Amino acid sequence: MLCRVHIIAFYSENSRETDAHVSVFASLMATINVSVKWGKQKYPLTVSPSDPGVVVKSQLYSLTSVPVERQKLMFRGKKIEDDTELSSLALRNGAVLMLIGSAEVLEEPVERPTFIEDLSTEDQVRFADVVPVGLQNLGNTCYLNAVLHMLRAMPELGGALERRANPDAPEQAQIVRSNMSNLFRQMDERQETLVPLFSFVQMFRTVLPQFDQKSEQGAYLQQDADDCLNQLLRLLGQATRGHGDGAPSITSQLLEGQMQIRSRCTENEEEPDEVTTEPVVKLSCHIGSDTNFLRDGVRLSLDETLTKHSPSLDRDAVYARTSRMAQLPPYLVVHFVRFFWRKQAGRRNKILRSVKFPLELDATPFCTDEYAAQLIARRAELRELRDAQETARAEQETAAKLDADPRAAAATTEAPPPSSMAALPLSYEAPNPAGDGMYELCAVVTHQGRSADGGHYLGWVKYGPDFWYRFDDNMVDRVRDDDIKRLAGGGDWHMAYLCLYRARSQ
Questions:
Q1: 372: Cβ–Cβ under 8 A, 6 or more apart, which residues?
Q2: Which of 149, 286, 447, 456 is catalytic?
Q3: Measured torsion, CA atoms of residues 292, 293, 294, 300, in degrees rounded to the nearest 10
Q4: Residue 205 confidence (pLDDT) above 70
Q5: Contacting residues for 57 by C-beta, under 8 A, at least 6 apart
Q6: Would you place residue 302 in the very low, low, confident or very high pLDDT band (cuts 50, 70, 90)?
Q7: Where are the beta strands (DSSP E) in 50-143?
Q8: Helix or strand run (H / E) with residue 200
Q9: Average pLDDT over residues 166-177
Q10: Region 393-411 average pLDDT
């Protein structure tokens, strides 16, 4: 085992350069140089035959400011639709496409943006000390980069990876834990502005060969961020499970809740309901024709009907299956089920429908009635406690002012009665890790594009009130809550695919 870890983590720099050169060469071989004529102007473009038309339109939007929905793109008299595969057009180098459409007029910003380059040297140094590091894209690894940033949004995870190691775990799980711990430490220590991922990605593709797939041209294929998250959580769970004491893994402690599943026979009311409980690490948000909000999509996934054998009827019957959370975790993952298999196209397509998600999530609608009542009662208790804390704080501030100003003390005709609440702590740790059922959004993984086999993933992580960072591989910039709200979908912009909610601090 030691030899294998050594080989994965410390392969030579020459190998790194060779792999990178091969990947770049394969990408160049798979591209075509075309030009697009728009009015009197002509724009050169480099496209890939495997891309759909919407990818070209997105490139043209950045060049011409013609919105994608207004673009009419033509080649040899044929209209190029959003889902038209470029390979079907038999494009060659030098081909000329025709664009018809009017550009949108951009409003002048109310406040002029300030760029890093415009700052003083002192401010640039201060800004560089704050901005977190980005991650390199080593051949369609944007899905992995985005998931890693989401996992780092749980600060408890990084420390646990260093301290907790299960020697009985499978070798693959131990390798992933060790390498991820080293990577997170590099990112925390900011050893470089752009943390190198060569050894980690090599390890990742070796341990999980399903992410090592390549196209016929030799370029690495795009992968699903949700699949990546599932596999990493599985291996980290094995690697951090208690050794000998049966203690739960760190991933279970942070992400695992308990789901109560009730199956009721709709064809025989006298048959007893079947009730089971099983662990879950995320909720699914199914997107139907009427789904407009995350809450609706999650409830849609929790209620379903199925056909199975009925012991009371001795035949197949229809059952109503309802799932409700009986225990909420400290962190809650919500997966927007946007991809579906399209048989005609022979690939997974994407549901672009806008589904709004809140910055603060009330999870009680997803819970059993009994558990929801407990959470709501705890919420009322916490509200009373916070009110008492505010009163105690105000009394302390008033007392401090009176002590500092003798005239104010003399003018006070009646001293307020001593408060028994003054000794209460100003923070409250709820006995339940899920607190009162209220969660705040702390990280998002988004996908841009119309197919699971392409597009681009980004990570978005909250660092403070109305203060987020957007991680576009090696590019990192600061955004605000309003930018996060625009990730609901409904077009070709980045849209939420995975959301990570943290139980609200008390």
A1: 364, 365, 437
A2: 456
A3: -60
A4: yes
A5: 68, 71, 73, 82, 492
A6: very high
A7: 72-75, 78-80, 96-100, 134-135
A8: helix 198-207
A9: 92
A10: 67
Amino acid letter at 204?
Answer: F
Q: Write down the pLDDT at residue 423.
A: 27
pTM higher than 0.90 for the full model? no
- List the end-to-end C-alpha distance of the chain, in Å, as a whole number: 45
Annotated catalytic residue 456: yes
Residue type, 421: M
Say yes or no to pLDDT of 194 above 70: no
Q: How far apart are CA 261 and CA 263, in angstroms?
A: 7
CA dihedral sign of residues 437, 297, 484, 190: positive
User: Residue 403, exposed/middle/buried by CB under 10 A (0-12, 13-18, 19+)?
Assistant: exposed
The mean-pLDDT minimum among 110-114, 160-164, 441-445 falls in 110-114
Helices vs. strands in the chain: H and E counts, helices first: 14, 21
Candidates 286, 277, 285; CA nearest to 327 is 277
Catalytic residue among 142, 228, 367, 499: 142
Say if residue 368's pLDDT is above 60.
Answer: yes
